[in-house]
Specification:
Elements: H1 5-26, H2 33-40, H3 44-47, H4 54-71, H5 81-91, H6 96-113, H7 116-142, H8 151-171, H9 178-194
Helix pairs in contact: 1-2, 1-4, 4-6, 5-7, 5-9, 6-7, 7-8, 8-9
Length: 202
């Protein structure tokens, strides 16, 4: 009996879920055709119907990671400085789910750096995030909650701060519990409100 379109779509969903489970367990370093095939309970030959090459598999995994990240629940943003704060907190590994997602993102950097197209895709993703931050910062400035300054430059600094904090929290979780991460964000925003640089966390 021939497979129906519904069968094909169901199998594609199964494969995508298997890709995600491999990513969650092993990161991009452990993402192989063999690992995904074992996770889905199929042969590597079957996977070639979905991914002709390892690069196709990686590209699918990055797309899957982007879509899952976009679908993740966000904090109530409000407006102005509160919206900037919420956007930065949403980046950080403050929960088990956010920690798992950040581990996968960080593991993807080496893979993306090795491929010009994947690197360009990553650059686009981070540029979009900066654009969002830029608009939020500009609104906070309009409301008088942040000191004047180039919103694009401030957004780049805020993104770099948040990503650096992600790496530190992943590498040394005991030294950077959620409470300390939140304090550091608040210190950073307080410094921006004054028109200065980031401060320490006391």
């Amino acid at each position: 009996m021939p497979r129906t379109k519904g069968d094909h779509e169901a199998r594609r969903r199964d494969v995508s879920e298997a890709v995600w489970r491999v990513l969650a367990a092993h990161g991009f370093g452990g993402l192989t055709m063999r690992a995904v095939a074992a996770e889905v309970g199929a042969s590597t030959g079957l996977l070639t119907h979905y991914f002709r090459t390892k690069r196709d598999l990686v590209a699918h995994a990055l797309d899957l990671l982007e879509r899952r990240t976009a679908a993740r629940p966000r904090r109530a943003a409000g407006q102005g400085l509160a919206a900037v704060r919420a956007a930065l907190l949403d980046v950080l590994p403050l929960t088990d789910e956010a920690t798992a997602g950040n581990r996968i993102w960080v593991s993807s950097w080496d893979t993306a750096l090795a491929d010009p197209q994947l690197r360009a895709d990553h650059a686009r993703r981070y540029a979009q995030s900066r654009d969002t931050l830029r608009d939020l910062i500009a609104e906070a400035q309009r409301l008088g909650e942040l000191a004047p300054g180039d919103p694009e430059r401030l957004a780049a600094g805020a993104q770099a701060f948040a990503l650096g904090l992600v790496v530190q929290a992943l590498l040394d979780a005991p030294a950077f519990p959620a409470s300390r991460q939140v304090r550091l964000v608040d210190d950073h925003l307080a410094a921006l409100a004054r028109g200065g640089g980031a401060t320490g966390d006391g």
